[in-house]
């Protein structure tokens, strides 16, 4: 199950943080690191701070965009010190650990961490199903990146050990679509809304952002998403035949 949990670091600028994050992961049994457009190399500093966990940093997958990092994930959780202007479904670190441990039984899940100085952008946060916030001192709430990774990784481990104790049998839950399938649905939805003139092509963002939030909250299962795609296709067919 822990092999299904990816730790995604977006735009990390200090290589030492990559090393420390690798160490934070390995002590908790996580080994799958993904670097999105890193601003530094996995250099000597990273290796030094990783101590015995340099394999994780050296084997990290490097990709260009967050979308690439999470396209095969059925659950994506963004870690953020601030709730920002977006009102998004929130998880406590403990709930986040439990969800990752449960869903990691059957599919890939990702925990996403932001840049040291600026965190995650609103667009990146909108690619996540949930946000997790470590309830730190409100007057000084921003943890060092690797320490945030440590805190969340610990919660995943605790939940995983709990599962093992209970000899956990995963519930027969509905299957969730992969991130890229959800993105294809959003593209399709946007196209139909533009074609039907529900929104104008030059300003789709506001409505799309609201609808993204709705569908992320609802988390449609694979079957449900297929139905929604079917509805959109039916609308397109009807318009075409007018
Ligand atoms: N100034 C940035 C903080 C970046 S810290 C900001 O305001 O967003 C680097 C990363 O560590 C963050 O993007 C987040 O993923 C994680 N992090 C730091 N403190 C956190 C907290 N209290 N809760 C959740 N994640 C946190």
From TrEMBL:
It catalyses: uridine(32) in tRNA + S-adenosyl-L-methionine = 2'-O-methyluridine(32) in tRNA + S-adenosyl-L-homocysteine + H(+); cytidine(32) in tRNA + S-adenosyl-L-methionine = 2'-O-methylcytidine(32) in tRNA + S-adenosyl-L-homocysteine + H(+). GO terms for molecular function: RNA binding; tRNA (cytidine(32)/uridine(32)-2'-O)-methyltransferase activity. It comes from the Bacteria. The keyword Transmembrane does not apply. It holds the Pfam family SpoU_methylase. SUPFAM superfamilies: alpha/beta knot (SSF75217). The keyword tRNA processing applies. GO terms for cellular component: cytosol. Keywords: Cytoplasm, Methyltransferase, S-adenosyl-L-methionine, Transferase, tRNA processing. This is tRNA (cytidine/uridine-2'-O-)-methyltransferase TrmJ. The lineage of its organism: Bacteria, Pseudomonadati, Pseudomonadota, Gammaproteobacteria, Vibrionales.
